[in-house]
Amino acid sequence: MTKPPRKPSKPLLGEADAPLRSRPRRRRDPAQPNLPLDAMPARIEPCLALLMAKPPKGDNWVYEIKWDGYRLSVHIEPTGVRILTRGGHDWTSRFPAIERAAKEFPVATAILDGEAVVLDEQGRPDFSLLQQSLGGRGGKKRSSAALFMAFDLLYFDGHDLRNSELDTRRHLLEDLVPAGGEDDIRLSEEIEADGDQLLESACEHGLEGIIAKRRDAPYSSGRLGDWVKIKCVRSESFMIVGYERSTVARAGIGRLLLAARKGKKLVYVGGVGTGFNERNAYELREKLDGLITSTPAAAVDRKGAVFVKPKLIAEIEYRAWTDDGKLRHASYKGLRDVADGAETYEVKGK
């Protein structure tokens, strides 16, 4: 496929108040020949980003902001709209604003891939605000505050786009979701910038990180490396296997005890005692007390620890690992939901 020449890179977020903009695209030619229609998939396993320490280099990579929320696919069908989580659960009723926005789209059929987020006062995605709007893990609230940041188009007007290059899919997506919109479905815009400079700028602005994608790659389900994520602060999901009581901390939780997967077992990777606010601390204590057990799920040598069944997965920010395999400078972000495809971090080695 012949590609248009690339424009010179522009600095991202170089101006504090300058909005992000994708590079301009040609409008789709309405006189293009009709193609045979493809059956609309009931569900598509998402393409997942592979974690890397540094941004990849080369003209074949394009960049976006990494959104900190719930991965969703929005299915616009002749019978209505369905909103599915990464794990395939139907959460249409939980995102009424996104559903309404999708119904207004001038298209009969489409599948959009993206992320539901709630923005803070500075316009940054905040995972804890998203959780609160949904009533916490296991909650049943309807979130009217959540927006959908669309970053890919997998099916459009009867055509399956998964075998098309990313450039082609983005071309069609930007016709459907124009850049700079303020609706409840917005475009996650591609950014012309040097990867290292973009990551540095994103981190300075308090964002989670960036995503890099191969512009000539088809859409492949799974974590194959066509998409990669580079984070400002490391963030992974760990199993809660217990907690330590405190007489001064909120809800009496002094520290959560965390574990990662290693093969078929759970191994203790340390604890976290910061990041709680009053609300989520009391909600967490209530859930933990319903899971107390005398049998630890991982080998934990902590005097006075209260052990719980391994049912709750916490999202944890951390800076590094110690030499003995424990988390350094960890901070609690919230509970992950199984419906969001939460996976416990896996440590490598023997």
Keywords:
5 helices; D-amino Acid Aminotransferase, Chain A, domain 1; 350 residues; 6-stranded antiparallel sheet; alpha+beta; OB fold (Dihydrolipoamide Acetyltransferase, E2P); 6-stranded mixed sheet
CATH class assignment of the largest domain: Alpha Beta
What is the total number of structural domains?
A: 2
Radius of gyration, taken over Cα atoms and rounded to an integer in Å: 21 Å
CATH topology value of the largest domain: D-amino Acid Aminotransferase, Chain A, domain 1
How would a crystallographer describe the biggest sheet? 6 strands, mixed
The portion of residues forming beta strands comes to 25-35%
Number of helices, where a helix is a run of at least 4 consecutive DSSP H or I residues: 5
**Helix fraction bin:** 10-25%
Please sum up the structure shown:
14% of the residues lie in helices and 29% in strands. The chain is built from five helices and 18 strands.
Outline the structure in words.
The protein has 350 residues and is an alpha+beta fold. It has 2 domains: 50-231, D-amino Acid Aminotransferase, Chain A, domain 1 (2-Layer Sandwich), CATH 3.30.470; 234-340, Nucleic acid-binding proteins (OB fold (Dihydrolipoamide Acetyltransferase, E2P), Beta Barrel). The chain has helices at 96-103, 127-133, 166-176, 195-204, 278-289, and strands at 50-51, 61-65, 70-77, 80-85, 110-117, 147-156, 159-160, 185-187, 209-214, 227-231, 234-245, 253-262, 265-272, 306-307, 313-318, 320-321, 327-328, 331-336. The strands form 4 sheets. Strands 3, 4, 5, 6, 7 and 8 form a 6-stranded mixed sheet that branches. Strands 11, 12, 13, 14, 15 and 18 form a 6-stranded antiparallel sheet that branches. A hairpin with a 2-residue loop joins strand 6 and strand 7. The radius of gyration is 21 Å and the shape is globular.
